[in-house]
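Hello forum,

I keep getting stuck at the same step: I have a sequence, I want structure tokens, and every attempt I make locally crashes halfway through. Rather than fight my setup again tonight, could one of you with a working pipeline run this one for me? It's a single chain of 143 residues.
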Amino acid sequence: MDKFMQAAINEAKKGRDSGGIPIGSVLVRDGLIIGSGHNQRVQQNDPMAHAEIDCLKQAGRVGTYEGMVLYSTLMPCYLCAGAVVQFNIKKVIVGENTTFPGAEDFMKQHGVEVINLNNQTCIDLMNTFIHQFPELWNEDIGE
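Reply #2:
Ran it on my machine without issues. Output:
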């Protein structure tokens, strides 16, 4: 498995293990992780604390995002895809989009290369969570 996706999965498990939604993200530049995060909407009582947003916050001010790759265990939603487009991140690698289609087309329309790994670990993490906590999941995706 890709070591950066594994790092994102580890972040997702941190989120799950702390009572939240199992979505994780890492930001990579030149083969190094410069930021990592996980969904903390529940833990922080913050509707904006998505994994990708947390990851970008943890990376801090980085100047330019040129050449960076954002990894996420789940296809980014429109909020997170908006951040990708805003910061001109040109490549996003996702674990899966079967449990949530996200904003893949939006990112592609804005010149972002999106690679979906269809990773079974990511699919299983989300399916288990959705089955156990359907109300929390529906809240997370705005249903």
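The chain is about 45% helix and 15% strand. If your local run keeps crashing, start a new thread with the error log.
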